[in-house]
Each structure stands twice: as structure tokens, then as C-alpha cells.
Amino acid sequence: MIVLNLIVSMQDVSLLRNHNQILSNIQWEIKEGEHWGILGLNGSGKTSLLNIINGYHFPTTGEVSVLGNHFGKTNLPELRKEIGFVSSSLDRFSDIVNQETVLRVVISGKFASFGIYENIEAEDWEKADALLESLRLSYLRNQPFHLLSQGEQRRVLIARALMSDPKMLILDEPCSGLDILSREELLTMLHQIADRGCHILYVTHHIEELVEEITHALLIKDGKIFAAGPKKEVITDELLSNIFKVPVEVHWKSDRPSLSITNLKIKQSCIP
Q1: CATH code of the domain covering residue 170
Q2: pTM for this one?
Q3: Is the separation of the CB atoms in 243 and 39 below 8 Å?
Q4: What does the mean pLDDT of the chain come to?
Q5: 3-state secondary structure (DSSP) of residue 244
Q6: pLDDT at position 269, please?
Q7: What domain range is 61 assigned to?
């Protein structure tokens, strides 16, 4: 019997902030070879869950292990070098990134910095070029980052996150604000990322973004895990209607779900 390594393990995890219970009794495991989509309403606890995995928040209670590193017994800054992270929260570094070319933005991922403050070796240039080519981004190589479209910028930041050969890539609503073409171009990259042996955690409000490469889904509601498991067992009418608090129907095509609202009655406001 082959025993798969655990990529993430959370046992009895809770998180308390300013006397508010953010997460409660989280029991969750990600096994080797699994790629997870994470769904939940705003304020449900998704971001707090990501912050624990990244080592930015330490749980109030419980045990956490990420990539074989047990929290409380590991160097968290070193662990973060093994985790790629793409989120709109990175926009706070835009003043630095906008001054760079695409190639230099990608290379900066090796150093987990925005801007390059260390020597660049010949193999760094070669690796960044190979990464851009594998993700079909070579045509942007020498373009100033600030001239790219929003969709192109997100794809370049994913390439940057892969520069350090992370074992896990966290994508926090990467398609937010993108048009349909830009979204599909970004989602197409998930196949190449999975083929690199990198485990994907994909956070979204839109189930149609859970493409074939996403094997499992986690639903979080009010700081608790509502359901977790293989994608088709979790992405169901009943479970999604509960966490989204509106009646929905799920439709499947080529292992990719989509959603429609059913029998929703909106109360009319009294307008004087």
C-alpha cells in the first residue's frame, strides 16, 4: 500500500482575533497529488485559512503542518519560500513592480522580493526565460510591467511565484476583475502548473473556475468547514445553496461546473 505524503494537515485548529472567533475546529488534510478549490462567502474565513497556511497567522489552538513542517518547530520564513502566493493583496507593491520589465519581475520570485537586490546569475535569466516560454508568456519578456493588461499582469505574477519551484501555489481570487478571455488564458495555465508537480490551492467565488485540474473542494461557512472532499461530491445543489444562502443548481460539462440561481425571490424595497 502506497502512503501519500500530507501537503497540509490541520487538526482541531481555531483562530481567535480581538475576542472574535474567526475559525473553529478546522480538520483538513491535503494529500500529495490533490489540487483544491476553496469556496465561501466574504467573511467566511477563507483569507484567515490562507494566512495560517502561509505562516502569517498562528492558530490559537490546534496543530498545523505544511509541506512536512510542523508549526512551532520550523522556520516560517524559510517555509514561505516553498509556497507561491498570488493575490490582489500584492498590489501594495505596485510602485516597485511597475518600474520593472516582465523578465525582471519573474526573476524577483527567486528571492521572494519585489525588486531585485541580489546578484542575478546566468542560470536565473535562463530559468525565467524557460518559465515564460512554458507558460506562453515569452512575447511579454521585455515589456514594462505597468503597460500590461490586468490579465497579463496576473499571469506574469503566477510565473514569478513559480520561479522558486514552490511545492504549493496559492491563488487567491486570481481572476477577479478579468474579462472572459483573460480569465480563460489564466485558467489554462493551471494544467502546466499541475504538471510541474506543484499543488494548487485555488480560492474563488465562481465555481466555473474550478477547471479539470482542481480535484477537490472545500466549502467554508462561518469559520467552519462545511464540506470537504472530491470535487463532484462537494459541488452539489444542496451544499452550495447552503453556503451561498441562495437556491442554486450546479451544471457539469467536461468536469467543470457552472451555477444558476433558482426560485430566488428578492424582497422589494419600499421606495417613497
Answers
A1: 3.40.50.300
A2: 0.87
A3: yes
A4: 88
A5: helix
A6: 45
A7: 6-261
